[in-house]
Design goal:
Number of helices: 16
Pfam families: AlkZ-like (PF06224)
Protein name: Winged helix DNA-binding domain-containing protein
Organism: Kribbella alba
Helix content: 40-55%
GO molecular function: DNA binding
InterPro entries: AlkZ-like
Shape: globular
Number of strands: 12
Largest sheet: 4 strands, antiparallel
């Protein structure tokens, strides 16, 4: 069994994640392909992740790829998370992950509808949901594109309220609107389009999938084949990694994970005592890259690519991640996290190093901070999930 050590794993990040200066991506699509997908739970992450990997990129260029050329698409995928994926790869993600999520979420929504007494028993709630979905989809087709509020005006049943966590201090009665739209999106019937407002907005126009793309999301492969294709893409970007890493990243069962690894003939390697996997022929050392530093946004795909993170995170987890496992803005040097960054009200990029990186690397990080301050041009990005270090650096 070949041994792949920490230094080799870190070297792969610089090249494969397009972070070393000589390895950067040509455009937003290539950046996304290199990482399989871009995280999009926080809308700012998409633009900042691209900017970290595509020299000279700007918000307009990423928006053009998303909303004009439609070479990238925002969709639900692994771990019930919203991602931006290369449009050509969307059918694979849909078949490998999203179809299963849609089934489970429908069952959960029917349960919540029943508990709220909206339509009677589970069978009646299921029929009610189907009727509302079809009415909503028809309204969207007639409009061409619409906001959630506009669709609620067309289909008043979307304003029915659920009863969540009754009797608890955090009890709530949300409208069913977002859940119905979520379900239609999870089944590939509707697509999130342009944001309402700026690139920081989390509210989007919705469009029928067939209107957004000719033929909708495209022809899906069989689920087992799709999972194998997705595992291959993950290994190409994030390998070596363990089965637990891939299971966490994909949201699959361990059985599905092992089956996918077998299907791609994944090769076992020694990760300092743990069993990891690479694609056949990928055991050899990565070609060296020049020293590099990078400022990555909260929820960037690189730090969120593995479950086991000690080899690039060191002892910094408590300051860099929040309590639920979401990473904040990070500073990287040669494949490891060495600090974090944030913005006070003034909009400048502040940073703090968590270890001694030497004078040359510190100077490079200072220059990178100045570049990010200029790129953001006074726009303040507040992550949806905030790490302790980011909070501290953002205090004016």
């Amino acid at each position: 069994m070949e041994h792949i050590g920490v230094e080799e794993r870190r070297a792969r990040i610089g090249r494969r994640h397009r972070l070393a200066p000589s390895c950067q991506a040509a455009d937003p699509v290539q950046a996304a392909e290199s990482l399989v997908v871009l995280h999009a739970t926080d809308p700012a992450t998409v633009h900042l992740s691209v900017a970290a990997r595509v020299p000279g990129s700007d918000v307009a260029g990423t928006e053009r790829a998303l909303y004009d050329d439609r070479l990238l698409i925002r969709m639900l995928g692994m771990r019930r998370t919203v991602f931006v994926a290369p449009t050509s790869f969307a059918p694979v993600i849909q078949a490998a992950c999203t179809d299963d999520i849609a089934i489970k979420q429908r069952q959960l929504l029917v349960k919540h509808l029943t508990e709220a007494g909206i339509a009677g028993d589970a069978e009646a709630s299921g029929l009610w949901l189907r009727a509302v979905e079809e009415s909503t989809a028809t309204a969207l087709t007639l409009r061409g594109s619409a906001t959630a509020n506009e669709l609620s005006a067309d289909e008043p049943r979307l304003r029915s309220r659920l009863a969540m966590a009754e009797g608890k201090t955090y009890a709530a009665q949300p409208y069913v609107t977002s859940r119905v739209l979520f379900q239609l999106a999870a089944e590939g019937r509707i697509v999130r389009g342009r944001p309402l407002g700026t690139w920081l907005s989390g509210q989007h126009q919705w469009s029928p999938a067939e209107k957004w793309l000719p033929g909708g999301l495209g022809i899906k492969p069989p689920a087992d084949g799709a999972r194998a294709t997705l595992a291959q893409a993950w290994l190409n970007a994030f390998g070596p990694g363990t089965a637990a890493d891939l299971q966490w990243w994909s949201g699959w069962t361990m059985g599905q994970t092992r089956k996918a690894l077998t299907a791609v003939n994944a090769v076992e390697v020694d990760l300092d005592g743990a069993i990891g996997y690479v694609l056949p022929g990928d055991e050899a050392p990565e070609a060296e890259v020049e020293p590099w530093v990078a400022f990555l946004p909260a929820l960037d795909p690189t730090p969120m690519g593995w479950k086991e993170r000690g080899w690039y995170l060191g002892e910094h987890k408590a300051k860099i991640f929040d309590n639920t496992g979401n990473v904040g803005p990070t500073i990287w040097a040669d494949g490891r996290i060495v600090g974090g960054w944030g913005q006070p009200d003034s909009g400048e990029v502040r940073f703090k190093l968590l270890e001694d990186v030497g004078a040359d690397t510190t100077a490079a990080i200072e220059a990178e901070a100045a570049k990010w301050t200029a790129w953001l041009a006074g726009v303040r990005v507040t992550p949806r999930f905030r790490s302790p270090l980011e909070k501290a650096l953002s205090q004016s």
